[in-house]
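Shipment paperwork, digital attachment
Item: protein structure file
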Amino acid sequence: MFAILTVGLLVILAVVVVLSTVKIVPQGREFTVERFGRYVRTLRPGISILTPFVETVRARINMMEQVLDVPRQEVITKDNVTVVVDAIVFIQVMDAASAAYRITNLDYAITQLSMTNLRTVVGNMELDEVLSQRDQINSRLLAVIDEATSPWGVKVARIEIKDLLPPPDITNAMARQMKAERERRAVITEADGEKQAAIARAEGAKQAAILEAEGRREAAFRDSEARERSAEAEAEATRLVSEAIAKGDLNAINYFIAQRYVDAFAKLAESPQQRTVIVPAEMSSMIGSIAGIAELLGGTRNEAKGA
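Attachment content:
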């Protein structure tokens, strides 16, 4: 019986020794090892063997990138405006030994460091700068916090302002200001459109006036040319008739008389106040004059052919 108990105790002791000496480190973790309370080495992911009853695992460090939430807090800006700010910090442990032995409660320390530096950075800026320059705030916070956490074996990958809330009265004032600015831009845009439309209408009227003037000039030129040709034809006819009269041709005289008679009679007929046209009794004389004109024209043609 005693032998069985002894064997059982030995088996249990062997199991305990094996469990205490064989360590399996998962991926993304690192373990620090102490020998009689003093740090000696760091276990990487995989299987490791410790010295029984001499070496023990002290800290299990997460080597993956982690996200820390910076609590919301009120910060007074440079122009004495209270804003509510919160942020998030992305960190990664690069040295497990430094993270385990150089700082107590690493996450709490980084959170408090972020809060104090956030108040410092935002407090040195005016409200308009805080609202419009978040990237600059993030960059300044990242540089300061990364430098401060470097001795702890921690790399701050980035820090982001998650929310930034000005007081309600400031928010309302900003909304009214934005509305006024948009209305001003709308008025300017509308006025500019009306200006462009007026310029386009004036330009169109100008072009229409130019084209109308060009048309009148062309019509006047054509009319002048027509009158000139008519005058030339009349002068040529007068010359021919004058030559015929000089030669003693009575038909030429009848031509002039008949022409004046016909013109006067045409004007009398075209008068808007003349409703009744009276044919003169000397119609036979006018017909004779017209016959004389025909003979004159025929003689003129014969002379032209003889020439």
